[in-house]
Every structure is written in C-alpha cells, then in structure tokens.
C-alpha cells in the first residue's frame, strides 16, 4: 500500500513498467548505434527515441486488442510457410539472399538453421525467435488491414452524383456585402458569447496538455580575463599545429571541433573569419578568432578545384544478419563488374539496393556540399566530389558498401581543406559566481509574476517564453532543461521558479499558463474566436438589412452594392474567381430549388454575405469518366488514407494514460 508505483503509463488497462520502458529505450539506442556507428545520440535524438519506445508500446497493446476482438491469429504453420514455403516473406527474401547474386537462396537459410543448432550461447536462437515474432506481427497486421480494405467501396450512385456535379458550370450574377464594410469597433462581444462559440465548435479548439513559461537567463560567459588566460595556453597549441605532420590526429586530440578530411567549396564555408581564411595559401594559419564561446585557429591544408553540384547513382549493400562484411564486399564487387560489363544500373539498383530512399529512382542522388546526406554515407559524398565524372567505384562505409557511379559534375570552383583548432573559453569560477549572484538576487526580489514583469522591463532584461510538453527534455536556446520542465508541471500559475543551473546559464522562470488536455481556454484563442464571433454578428446585421430580397436588384438596392457577374463556377471547385474560397456560394449556385428562376436567400460566406442568381447552366465540356477507373482510383486513395490514419484513429479512441513525466525529473 505504501510502495511507489513503477508504472509509467497504460493503454486500455494494459500497464507499462518503468523497467520495461527503459529496456525498450536501450534496445532502440543500441539499434541506432549499430545503424550509425560512431554517431552521438544527442539530446534531440534521445528525446526521439523515448517517444518511439512509448509509441511502440501503444501500438502493440492497441493492435493486440484489435486482433483479439476480431479473432485474428497467426499459427506456427503460417510462420513456417512464410519462411520455408513456396512464396517466402519479404523479410526472408532480404535476410537470406545469396551474397553473389542478391537473390534469395534456400541454402543460406538452411546454413543459418544449422548454425543455430550449433550455437552454444543461444544468442542465434533468440535472434531467430525475434525474427519469427516480426513475421507473426507483420502477418497479423496484414490480416487486419485486409479486413479494413475490404470494407472500402465506391458505389455507382456516388459515381453518378459526382459525374453530374462536374457536367455543368454556372454563370451567375451576385451581390456581395463584405464584412470589412462594417468597422470592427462597432461590434461588441462578451466573454459569454466567445465561450459559447468555443463550446459550439469544440473540435476546432482541441489542445494537448501544455505549460508555458517565461524566463530570464543570466549567462556565465567568459570575461576578458578568462579569455586572456585561455589564449596564453592556446598559443602553445598553435605552435604545434604549425609544425605537426599529423594534423588530423593533432586536431582530434586537442580541438573542440572535429577534423573534416574533405574539401569545402569556397562559397559553402561559413565561419566568422571566412574572408581572411579563404585566400590563405596552403600551410598558412589564421587566428585566433572567436566563434561563439570558442577561440579558433584555422589552418589551410590544401586547395583544389571541385564542382558545387554532383549527380550520382548508388547501389547500397548493407551489412546485416546473414550478410557479413566480407560477403557484402563480394556482392558489391560483383555488381560493379556487371555494371562495367554493360549492366543496367537502374535495374540493378531497384533489385539489389538496400537504400529505400533511392532504389525506386535508379539509385540517383543530386549532391551539394551543404545539402543533407546521411553521415554513414559520407565516404560516398567524398568520392562524388573528388572523383571524376563517369568514375565507378565500390566505396567502403561503416554500414556496408556502395557501388557508386558519378554521372555529372558542374560549376567547378575553388575548394579548401581546412583544419580548425578550437578551444572552449569557459567562464572562471569567479565569473560564474558573479552570474549566479545576479540570478539569485533577481529570484529573491521578484517572487510574483507582476514584479517579475516589472523588473524585466525596468532593467531591460532579455525575457523569452516557451511552451513545454510533459516529456520535453530540451528547451531551444537553453539545451538540456528537464528540471525546468519538471518544475513547470508541479508549479502553480504565476509561481516564480528557483534558480536553475544549466551548462553556461542560470535561469529564473515564471509559469504563465497551465493548460490541461481538452478544449482550449478563451485566453489562449481570444483573437481567433473574437474574429469569428464578430464576423457572425456582422452577417446577422447584413442579413437583417437585406431582409428577404425578391430579386437580386432588390438586394443591391437594400445594401447599396453593385450587381456583379462571374462565369464558369463548378460545384466541385469551391474557389471562385474574384471571390476566393467560398464553398457555400458554389453550393448555392447548384441548388435546384432556386435554379435560374429566382435569387437565393442571403448566404453567409467567408468574405461577406451574398445573394446570387444563376443566369444559365452551361456544359462543362468534361468527358464522362469510366466507372471502373473512378472506382479503382477512389478505393486506392481511400486505402492509402486509411493506412496513414488508421492507427492514429484507434489511438484516439483508446484509453491512454501517460505518467512518464513523473519518472524523469532531470536529464
């Protein structure tokens, strides 16, 4: 009864224990490290992993409930058939392929099965069990999706209605009274009216749980004395940089900035002292200069002429279970030989490449020096810029091998290889203590929101604000800030925080908003709601002035507005020339109750109130569509929409409770 709960959340009564959640996070971290060897898992990546682990738990529990309700099962016989049957599962085709041809090879599958039997550690058995489970879950999901897809149908009557809606266009005359013709200042609204609008349109104002803080940061930046002391030590390193034969090794050991063993085009170099650096001859050093809190010396290692845009084709052969490094290399070498012998690169990429981002377009990439390209493919990028157009090569990478062909290089210009020796200039204990004293003084003298705001204005302090989710770990501009988030979710509105000590800052915050999940409070959406309520009141005034005009000329006379015309209005297109997005107007133009005989009743549109009269209906000239083509396209689009949104809909209908925030009070 007195034990603290270890449940970080639950969905539909199924609980997730903190230890299991942590294990899920660690498993995902390990997989990411395997996929990107050497990559650092920064704060943003860690936050992404935590959310992925949580979503994985939700998906498992929500979908399992669906499977049980519908009686969806996958037997061991089905799994066996997916592995050893005539039509193996796509995962089997991928993992058990011949290293020479890339084609599925049953002998590879049999060898793996024998190795499992001979493995004394049992690790391969666990991996194979996990593989079976992947296939089981995939098959369950496929059965579920198939059931949903079978419920999608496009009936003939609907096709006929859509055909009719596009067969004619309407030419109309209309009178418009713009809302802007009534000054906002003349329309008075009350909070009761605004709140009623929110309640009547709850779906438009659904919000998630949220806290908003305003904060002041006292920077513990290095003083001139701190910089002078750091510079004395830094100059000794500069002398070594000038003479060392191993620049890369020296930078790795002594610099805060990594060594990039490649060439950067002159126009892509973005450092504070760019103009002084780019014209240096090879071997010369510039500096020191300051880059944020770093002192930097820049040494030009070499200069070349390189392109600023390169097009390549690539086939990625990734190292994975069943395909070792040596086998991946042999497969890549084989593919290179086939291409040199006249093989179709695009066809080979579509069949053999493990890169889902490019295999469907023949392995093509267009590269620029500053454009994004995955870190694990950096060696490919280096070859693309430093090789010659038409060159073909097998490139070694941390994740495997790539068969790369340079198809085009253009816009050649100077490029530099530069080594940056950077030393962080940290504040001394004296400087840091002075910043802390300022923060403590501010916090002690400003214990309520009103005083906080007044002092900020009087002292001209840089106040910032941020919306915080319960599981946020990082605040832009502050970095790792989990303690601030945890405080915000325990504090009362208007409460002043203690002084938070971050890496190089001391922060004092005030909680300005504590919003729970549900419908947004008026104070957060007042401008939007006021605009809509005032528009509705203006519409009521205009309609009352129009009364019920018998003709469009009567409407024009009552409102002192001209009668205008517009042609070729389509029922299927709510955008009307000269009027903009007005779906009610396009709808009214095809209301047969009015037809061409009389004017419509006043219509409350987006930009004003309208009265219109259809002058004539004319054929649109569109050829009737084939029903089967319409049905196929409609059902295919709806299946895609379902695949994208089905799980989110199931999650919204589920009873989800997220208590993770209480277990993460610090970074």
From TrEMBL:
Gene3D superfamilies: 3.10.50.40. Pfam families: Rotamase_2, Rotamase_3, SurA_N_2. One of its GO terms (cellular component) is plasma membrane. InterPro entries: PPIase_dom_sf, PPIase_PpiC, PpiD_chaperone, Trigger_fact/SurA_dom_sf. Keywords: Cell inner membrane, Cell membrane, Chaperone, Isomerase, Membrane, Rotamase, Transmembrane, Transmembrane helix. It is found in: Cell inner membrane. Its main location: membrane. Residues 307-408 form the PpiC domain. One of its GO terms (molecular function) is peptidyl-prolyl cis-trans isomerase activity. The keyword Cell membrane applies. PROSITE patterns: PPIC_PPIASE_2. It is a single-pass type II membrane protein. Belongs to the PpiD chaperone family. PANTHER family: PEPTIDYL-PROLYL CIS-TRANS ISOMERASE D (PTHR47529), PERIPLASMIC CHAPERONE PPID (PTHR47529:SF1). This is Periplasmic chaperone PpiD. It comes from Chitinophaga cymbidii.
């Amino acid at each position: 009864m007195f034990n603290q709960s270890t449940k970080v959340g639950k969905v539909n009564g199924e609980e997730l224990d903190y230890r299991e959640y942590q294990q899920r996070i660690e498993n995902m971290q390990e997989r990411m490290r395997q996929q990107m060897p050497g990559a650092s898992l920064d704060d943003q990546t860690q936050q992404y992993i935590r959310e992925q682990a949580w979503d994985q738990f939700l998906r498992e529990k929500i979908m399992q409930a669906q499977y049980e309700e519908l009686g969806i099962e996958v037997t061991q016989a089905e799994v066996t058939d997916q592995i050893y049957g005539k039509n193996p599962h796509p995962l089997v085709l991928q993992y058990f392929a011949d290293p020479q041809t890339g084609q599925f090879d049953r002998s590879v599958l049999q060898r793996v099965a024998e190795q499992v039997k001979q493995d004394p550690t049992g690790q391969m058995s666990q991996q194979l069990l996990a593989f079976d489970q992947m296939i089981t879950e995939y098959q369950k999901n496929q059965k579920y999706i198939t059931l949903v897809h079978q419920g999608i149908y496009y009936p003939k009557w609907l096709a006929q209605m859509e055909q009719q809606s596009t067969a004619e266009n309407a030419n109309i005359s209309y009178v418009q009274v713009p809302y802007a013709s009534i000054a906002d200042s003349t329309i008075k609204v009350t909070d009761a009216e605004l709140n009623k609008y929110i309640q009547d349109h709850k779906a438009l104002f659904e919000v998630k749980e949220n806290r908003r803080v305003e904060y002041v940061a006292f920077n513990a930046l290095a003083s001139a004395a701190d910089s002078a002391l750091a510079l004395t030590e830094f100059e000794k390193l500069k002398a070594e940089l000038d003479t060392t034969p191993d620049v890369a090794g020296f930078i790795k050991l002594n610099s805060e900035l990594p060594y990039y063993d490649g060439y950067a085009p002159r126009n892509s170099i973005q450092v504070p002292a760019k103009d002084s650096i780019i014209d240096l001859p090879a071997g010369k050093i510039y500096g020191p200069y300051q880059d944020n809190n770093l002192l930097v010396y820049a040494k030009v290692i070499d200069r070349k002429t390189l392109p600023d845009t390169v097009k390549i084709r690539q086939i990625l052969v990734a190292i994975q279970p069943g395909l070792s490094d040596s086998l991946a290399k042999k497969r890549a070498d084989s593919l290179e030989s086939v291409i040199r012998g006249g093989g179709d690169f695009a066809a080979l990429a579509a069949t053999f490449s493990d890169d889902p981002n490019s295999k469907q377009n023949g392995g093509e990439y267009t590269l620029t020096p500053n454009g994004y390209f995955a870190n694990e493919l950096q060696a490919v990028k280096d070859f693309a810029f430093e090789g010659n157009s038409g060159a073909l090569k097998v490139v070694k990478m941390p994740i495997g091998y790539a068969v790369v062909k340079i198809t085009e290089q253009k816009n050649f210009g100077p490029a530099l290889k530069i080594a940056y020796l950077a030393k962080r200039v940290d504040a001394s204990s004296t400087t840091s203590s002075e910043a802390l004293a300022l923060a403590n003084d501010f916090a002690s003298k400003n214990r309520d929101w009103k005083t906080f705001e007044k002092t900020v204005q009087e002292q001209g302090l840089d106040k910032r604000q941020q919306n915080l989710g319960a599981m946020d770990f990082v605040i832009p501009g502050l970095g790792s800030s989990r303690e601030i988030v945890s405080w915000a979710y325990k504090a009362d509105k208007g409460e002043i925080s203690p002084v938070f000590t971050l890496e190089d800052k001391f922060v004092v915050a005030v909680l300005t908003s504590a919003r729970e999940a549900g419908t947004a409070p008026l104070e957060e959406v007042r401008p939007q709601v006021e605009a809509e309520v005032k528009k509705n009141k203006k519409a009521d005034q205009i309609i009352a002035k129009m009364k019920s005009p018998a003709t469009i000329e009567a409407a024009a006379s009552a409102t002192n507005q001209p009668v205008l015309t517009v042609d070729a209005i389509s029922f299927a297109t709510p955008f009307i020339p000269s009027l903009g997005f007005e779906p009610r107007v396009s709808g009214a133009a095809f209301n047969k109750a009015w037809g061409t005989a009389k004017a419509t009743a006043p219509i409350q549109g987006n930009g004003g109130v309208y009265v219109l009269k259809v002058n004539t209906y004319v054929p649109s000239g569109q050829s009737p569509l084939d029903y089967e083509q319409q049905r196929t396209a409609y059902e295919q689009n709806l299946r895609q929409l379902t695949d994208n949104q089905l799980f989110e809909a199931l999650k919204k209908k589920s009873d989800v409770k997220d208590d993770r925030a209480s277990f993460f009070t610090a970074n």
